[in-house]
Every structure is written in structure tokens, then in C-alpha cells.
Amino acid sequence: MLCYNPYSLEGKRILVTGASSGIGKSIAVECSKMGAQLIICGRNQERLEEVLSALEGTGHQCVIGDLLQNEDIDSLLSQISQLDGVVFSAGKGLTLPFQFSTREKFDDIFNINFFSPVELLRLLVKKKKLHSNSSVVFIVSIGGTGRFFVGNSIYGASKAALQAMVRFCAQELASKKVRVNGINPGMVNTPLIRKGTLTDEQLEEDRAKYPLKRYGEPEDIAYAAIYLLSNASSWVTGQSIIIDGGITSK
């Protein structure tokens, strides 16, 4: 029986932020199936503990915290020894016409989608928490990088900034043997898309525009994260993988 698997995460310690729901939850669960030991982080203790109980294997850990708070970041860092991988999945959406896009709205979205993950990565690097040959994965988006539509300027701009940081960090951290990549999903069936201003009819109309005639599932994104975290992608850095059911190919 063949047991060779270049996508195995056996023996790897991986941090996943935003792991209490949606894409982050799926990434954590699927990585555990591939043999990884997980540190999962989120703000909702009940949901995070449910995810912890769903992970396969042993040695996993959950850390409750808001990564916009310095004390919570310090607490997380104090509980991390060394990591082989990080997935920054925490994020927030917003649909709002540009004329109503105040500085406060920009600050709110950028703090969560951009500044929080970038600052945590900076501290992980500074405090030497990342092993040589480790992998960093940012969940970006095609919104602001591949698709541009009315009402998405704040969210899209935050994701465009994050995609630029993927490339800058890939260049700077290559000397430390740390790879940095992004995943740019299209619309994925998560609670996030239900928190916006789009109606079910508008979502159905948008879904019909996708060549594969469906939105993605969280697992579709998790499998790409596994690839980027595994040794199978050891020569991949500074890239953003588009997983969007073909919508940006039109």
C-alpha cells in the first residue's frame, strides 16, 4: 500500500486565526486530517471550542482572543513556541456605497483585514516564532484584486493592500526561508456573505454569473491552504492562488 503523500502536514505545528467559523474553521479541520497540530485562534469561545473538538488527532490548542487588542496578541505569542505554518483567515466584509464610506468605516475594515494579520506576522518574525522552511498563508480575495463592483471599495481596498503585502513579505522573508503566499477566493458559502446588504435574490443572480454555476465551499479553500502549507509547495512564494469557480476568467 502506497503511503507517500507530499501534501502531508504530519509533524507540522500550524496557527490558524479566524478559526471559529467559515474558511478558517474548515482550514483547521482539514489540516488536522492531514496530520497537523493546530493552534486555533478566535474571539468566540463557544464556537472555537466546538472547532477544537472537531479536530482529528491530539495536541491541539485553542486561544481565545481579539487580535486587535495588544494584550490578546501578547497572550497568543506567549503560548506559541515554534510554528511551521500560519494561516491568517480572520476577516470582515462590508458593502457600502463610496459616498458613505467614512474614514471610520475604512479604519474598522482595514484594522481587521489588513493591520491585524500584518502586525501579528511582524511579531512572529521578530520574536523568531517561525521555523526555517515555514509557510505563511493570507486569505485575500478576488474582491479588489480581480473583481470590482459598486459598494465594495472599502473591503476591496483592504484586500488589495493585503495582496501587495504578500509579495513584499515574500521578498523580505525569503532569506529566513519563510514562504509567504495568498489565496484569493471568489464568493464562498460562509456566514460572512449573509451579513452583508445583498438579498438572497441578488446572491442568486451573482452565483449564476460563475462559469461553474456555484459559489465555493470552505473546503475548496482549505485544500489550497494545505498545498501551500505542505512541502509540495516548497518552491512557491509571493503568489496568490485564485480559487473562484472561473469568474475572473470571463
From TrEMBL:
CDD domains named in the record: SDR_c
Ranges annotated as spanning the membrane: none
A GO term, aspect molecular function: oxidoreductase activity
Keywords of this entry: Oxidoreductase
Coiled-coil portions: none
Family note: Belongs to the short-chain dehydrogenases/reductases (SDR) family.
Name of this protein: SDR family NAD(P)-dependent oxidoreductase
Source organism: Bacteroides intestinalis
